[in-house]
Amino acid sequence: MTEISVVGDSTEWQKDFERRLHASYTTAGLGADAAERRLEDVRVGIGDWTVAEITDAGARVGYVAVTVADDNGTLAGRIGDLRVDALHAGQGHEQAARDWAEEWCAERGARRLDIRLTEPVGELFGGYHVRGQLRMRRVSSPPELVDGVTARTMTQDEYPEWLASEKAAYIGDIVRAGALSSEEAARKADRDFAKVIPEGLSTPDNTFLVLEAAGGRIGTGWVKHGYLPGVTYGYSLFIQEEHRGKGYGRAAMAAGEQATLAAGDSMLMFTVWGGNEEAMRLYTRAGYHVMEEYRWIGLPCSAT
């Protein structure tokens, strides 16, 4: 029979958790320094997690870690870790731990439960909604843009309209993924953009592009260099709706890859929001694999 009990000392669990997470990052393709930097971000909140042992007949078979915190005005729970030893996997312990985590978070007022997955989703969280995916690809040589497509630096006059459009698209992605309401998403957008590009076009280590074809603008791009050691992060590679379906989406990614190499990085990373299947298909075709997937479910689960 599976039993779940909160532990007083989570040191042993944390060492194992960090080891497993670091290994998942390097397996996905991150260098050792980038994997460590990514792990540092996770460590920031670990002290607030509640860690519980999963036991069977008194023997520990795994761990589950949970937390509840305010997320842009919504009280949200999170499963930080759920692991069952390989020897005991597939015996119902995973399901029992997931049910316990959902109940634990709901009892503390959480209206949503999130989880970050570094392995294929499987059946355990198959019923959770996809909130987003972190995808990446190693860039080894400068790609060629689609014939007739050029990329140039964005001008100061073009920036205000671009910024308003990017915020609107960001808000739409968040709402479509079911992560936040439109009002919460708008507040998050204002905070996030002010944080990542406080100096606008002059913000260091950022490249802002305008894509053109046949003498007209077809899209834009925005990438951040050194997001992790050796990694450029693609905040946005956008093709205007009237120009989609012509292969320009791959051209936008190629422009981002060129900027990545020009800045001295060798990996390009994106977040794609849940519900944007078109972008997911594009990234898959272009060789961008899923490094992490974020899923969520409403609480209490009987209400979803």
UniProtKB/TrEMBL annotation:
One MF term in the entry's GO annotations: acyltransferase activity, transferring groups other than amino-acyl groups
Coiled-coil annotated residue ranges, if any: none
InterPro entries, per database record: Acyl_CoA_acyltransferase, Bact_Acetyltransf, GNAT_dom
Annotated keywords: Acyltransferase, Transferase
Domain of life: Bacteria
Domain spans labelled N-acetyltransferase: 149-304
Cited PANTHER family: AMINOALKYLPHOSPHONATE N-ACETYLTRANSFERASE-RELATED, AMINOALKYLPHOSPHONATE N-ACETYLTRANSFERASE-RELATED-RELATED
Protein name: LigA protein
Organism per entry: Streptomyces himastatinicus ATCC 53653
